[in-house]
Amino acid sequence: MMSMGGVENFEGGCYAKCIDLSAEKEPDIFAAVKPGALLENISFFEGTNKVNYKDTSITQNTRVSYPIDHIDNIAKPSLGKNPKNIFFLTADAFGVLPPVSKLTAGQAMYHFISGYTAKVAGTEAGVTEPQLTFSACFGAPFMPLHPTKYAEMLGKKMQEHNVNVWLINTGWSGGVYGVGKRISLKYTRAMITAILNGELEGVDYKKHVVFGLHMPTTCPNVPSEILSPRNTWQDKSAYDTKANNLADAFNKNFAQFADNANAEILDAAPKATANN
């Protein structure tokens, strides 16, 4: 929850996916699974109460809910100042969007309104291949006002408090789902850590030709070659085609909001090109 004085967490707990959970991959979440936590869609090793985190017989979408005090490194009370950085998360199953990019105010508003991600197998019943999905403000059913109202509020807050907004793609790199690979969690962590430490403030940025996103050319503890998604594709022409296809999908979805969007937001739309 945001207010004039900062941000507050009033939920009192956390909710995490736990497929393939281990102490090595996610030590804090793994340690939080103890009495008081609630596991969903999981199974146990036969004859024990030990969770089989690899079992996907019910669904890959296994989850755990736990009280916030099951985590050691928490802020007490759950209050914070206005943020210096805001992160939008997306899981692009088409391998187009960069793993990290810095957004202008217009782009932040545009992507907030778009709320893009991709459904993949295991997240919902009947989903066997990646499907584009857009949810305005990343939560369309809960927004009583027109999405552009919230986007303009975001843009105003960014300006008032000098906030950076970043788009973090936790999806695929090197190709579409089934061809490329999921971006490594350790690299995503390294990118966010670098941002929080101010280590991406003085680096060079490259502009994505289609989406106009500003991609850092270097990031501590992350291979430079993965920062520009086109570099990771063996078939560059195939990447260009997929980038244009995704841009078209963005623009078609945004048409429903265009009449209420200001010029800054409209100018942030991706621009499909014949040659990237």
Distance between the termini: 41 Å
Q: Characterize the largest beta sheet: strand count, sense, and whether it forms a barrel.
A: 3 strands, antiparallel
Number of helices: 7
- Mind telling me the C-alpha Rg? 20 Å
The count of strands amounts to: 15
Count of folded domains: 2
With strands numbered from the N-terminus, the spatial order across the biggest sheet is 1-2-6
Order of helices and strands: EEEHEEEEEHEEHEEEHEEHHH
Strand content: 15-25%
Helix content: 25-40%
The CATH architecture of the largest domain can be given as Alpha-Beta Complex
CATH topology of the largest domain: Phosphoenolpyruvate Carboxykinase, domain 3
Written description of the protein model:
This protein has helices at 27-32, 105-114, 147-161, 185-196, 229-232, 236-254, 263-267; strands spanning 2-3, 6-8, 13-17, 38-40, 63-67, 79-80, 85-90, 100-103, 116-119, 131-134, 164-169, 172-173, 181-182, 205-207, 214-216. Strand 12 and strand 13 form a beta hairpin. The strands form six sheets. It has a three-stranded antiparallel sheet, with no helix packed on it. It has 276 residues and is of the alpha+beta class. It is built from seven helices and 15 strands. The N and C termini lie far apart (41 Å). The mean pLDDT is 90. The chain folds into two domains: 13-70, Beta Complex (Phosphoenolpyruvate Carboxykinase, domain 2), CATH 2.170.8; 85-267, Phosphoenolpyruvate Carboxykinase, domain 3 (Alpha-Beta Complex), CATH 3.90.228.20.
